[in-house]
Amino acid sequence: MDFIISLHLNKLTNVLICFSLGDLIMKETLIFLLITFFSISIHAEQNYTIDENATFRESTDELVNAREITINTETHPGIALYRDNCAICHDGTVKKAPALNWIELLTPPALLRAMNQGIMSEQASHLSEEERILIVEYLMKQKREYFPKDAELNYCKAENRSFDITQSPEPYNWGYDTSRFIPKESGGIDSKNISKLKLKWAFGFPYAHRARSQPLFAMDSIFVGSQSGDVFALDIESGCIKWNFSASGEVRTGIVMDEWDNGKNPDKRPYIYFGDILANTYALDAQTGELIWKIKVDDHSNATQTGTPARFENILFIPISGLEVIPAFNVEYECCTFRGGLLAVEARTGKTLWKQYSIPLPGKYSGMTSIGTRMFGPSGAPIWNSPNIDKKRRYVYVGTGENYSTPADDSSDAIIAFNIDTGKEVWRKQTLAGDAWNLACMAKNNPNCPKENGPDLDYSASSISVNLGDKDILIAGQKSGSVYGLDPDTGKILWSNALSNGGTQGGVHFGMAAEGKTLYVPINDMANTYDGKVYKDLKPGVHSLDAETGKILWSKINPNSCGGIKSCDPGVSAAVTAIPGAVIAGHLDGVIRAYDKDNGNIIWSYNALKDFESVSGVPASGGGFSGSGPAIRNGYMAVNSGYGIYDHMPGNVLLLFSIE
């Protein structure tokens, strides 16, 4: 008698086992084969073809820096000044010193501020003003006349700088509740009145070509970070600046604030919390912008913060990510040693409570590349997403990205549950094994590309906890294009659904949303990632699923209407936000759309690809939407537009809409 076992794992891999019972000498052999089979980790089917005639990366400049290069970096006098005065610390080997690739992401004002009166003032004290400017020209790859002009910002008059401290932040969105659902009683916007949403004002961020820090409504104000490192407290009515604070680097995270009973005065002065790209976390007095504390959350030179910290009780949970994938493009870089992590600190003091790494042990020497560069591993498994707090179980869930170097281990592309009080790992579930990747894999024949060669299918979006009535389910969406329903107690996969084939810039990026049992899944599926890969069956758009079963309720694939605009794509990279009866999604084509809950029809849209009259004193223009999604409160919606990085359309504007 012949037996056939056919399995469809995660709708990614079809597995077929055929055997004859006569070939099995003992039943133990059958048992052994089955046990061995079911213990195999899930690997992704190749979802692309390679086009040798396509464009491959020759450098990381165009990918990371949306700036015109106007100097010769090999002959510019700033290179010698940098090597003599800066490289010894910023070559990626000195703990706590940001690596060169991070410094290049800063703005000219931030670099000059660091050398003139900031953290590098002592080290730069012997340099003349001209020498400091030459160093900045070298780092920016631009002549000084191309630097952004000094901004003359629009500050509020004294009588408009007060705060309504009886208005607490609502406990929705990143930092509080990763389901990203804003109820009508808090947000004042639903599917029935969203058609009345009109632009109230536009705030141009200074020195910026991307805007991704999620705004926070509280105290009758808006708090938001920016690429320049400035954090602003804005007046809702006019958009004038009540105060601003200059962090050491770009603020990509959202802003989180202490909570108290809405309508009452807080027991303590409210603090806000956020992180910068140099892996610093800050606490500020929300009423004055005064620095309360600042900590470095990880010593690695390529550590960073992208995911918004989560606030629960008196604990701040800080996700730690890294971009060691960028220097790995250099064939002489010894890749890689960074490990993702989660840090828990006392919110009011910044004191460490516990810290866990996604990869429990540091990487080890693992051999040489073909040109003799040393390799280390395992590494990577960064945590890009805002932690998901499970108050009932007292768990905190995070998702990890790919390994950066060989060997790939069980830490990458996984959901991990930690105990809130002790930091002890409760469980981890890897949904894709063998994923090791860095930017060297986007070039032709770069020896620093791990032997696994990707496919770089991170968990960059937060997981979502959904109450099904008699039980709970944990939902996780991946860049593979697959969505999983997990048992929150064990991590066991209850269902999975492959909405698309995913890719390096495909699948689920920054955030899903859920209204009750209705799950909204944005899919990016960028067609050209400039690494020779041609992806199959692209499905950019928004999809609605039943959270209990994973069944598709509707799918709306967004047609490409870019008309040849550079860096324009139809997909959804930004996090989406749900309101009663609809979900709001900003697309990389510069249009933000609201989709009806019942059928996915578009019930409101706004095209942000334009220049705006700015209330900040700085010119404002819209671009692609990515990173954070809309924040909503009392009939207002605030959303950033512009993402001049990773081949997306630049922009520098915060848009405030209101119900009219």
TrEMBL record:
Pfam family, one: Cytochrome_CBB3
Keyword Lyase: no
SMART domains recorded: PQQ
Domain Cytochrome c per the UniProt entry, residue ranges: 73-143
Cofactor: pyrroloquinoline quinone
Gene Ontology MF, one: metal ion binding
Keywords attached to this entry: Heme, Iron, Metal-binding, Oxidoreductase, Signal
The keyword Transmembrane helix is annotated on this UniProt entry: no
Stored InterPro entries: Cyt_c-like_dom (IPR009056), Cyt_c-like_dom_sf (IPR036909), PQQ_b-propeller_rpt (IPR018391), PQQ_rpt_dom (IPR002372), Quinoprotein_ADH-like_sf (IPR011047)
Similarity comment: family membership: Belongs to the bacterial PQQ dehydrogenase family.
Protein name: Cytochrome c domain-containing protein
Species classification: unclassified sequences, metagenomes, ecological metagenomes
